Amino acid sequence: MVRGPPFPGHFLKVLPAPGASGGGTLAPMSDTGPFQRLYRVQQLDLDLDRLRAEEASIPEPLREARAGQERLNNELEDTEITLEGVEKRIRQLEQDLAGTRDQMARAREEQDKNAFDARTQSQYGSRIQMLGERAEEMEEDLAPLRERARDLGNRAAELRAEHRALRPRLAELEAQDEARVGGLRDQGAGMREERATLVASLDSRTVKEYDLIRRAKKGLGLAEIQGGRCTGCNVNLPVNVQQRAAQGKLPPVKCPSCGRFLIKLG
Ligand SMILES: [Zn+2]
Description:
Keywords: DNA-binding. The chain is mainly alpha-helical. It has helices at residues 8-13, 23-29, 34-56, 60-113, 118-200, 204-217, 239-247; strands spanning 222-226, 229-230, 261-263. The protein is built from seven helices and three strands. Strand 1 and strand 2 form a beta hairpin. It starts with 7 loop residues before the first helix and ends with a strand.
């Protein structure tokens, strides 16, 4: 890759190995014309686009592990909120039950105090019976609630255990992904460096316009002429446009159909 470019087009199509870019490819590049350099800028831009897309695409195992953890978190949260509600109702009922039992105890004391008054005795008797029935109802309500609280508690413990079990695998996958993204960024750093050097050697207005076209076209700002056609939009180019493009003068000729800069390589 350090030799000069006898066939610039051919040379430019060869991508440097990741991390091997820089000085070796830059020296011959600066000998080429502005169009070849702009073409190389575009290759780097496309590679940087690809790196960004690759960085954003999360590997399936990590995606699944993250989703699994989130599912567990959500279910655990739901379970804990439900359990809290059930426990609150249990506490309320237990309080009411204790109050009812106190009332019963006091009613029994009063009944004992009036042991010789038959009418009062029977009044307290029916009050005690009523309170007893109410207490019984509360106990009946409490039993399924306690069972439900126990089930929810068990489920929460299960979910916490599953979450704990998933953690080392997820940490491993996250570390792998960090390394993957780091590698991609290192590759990108070399490309950005090469791009900056190339751009510094080019007419800034041409570069700015290329950037604008590329952004508007979501990909290519510069299209090669092949077989008399614009490779950007495949239109057949008028001969005078082809001739002007072949002269390789700035500002670059634009495709009359898609508006991209046209370049004739090799
Ligand atoms: Zn075109």
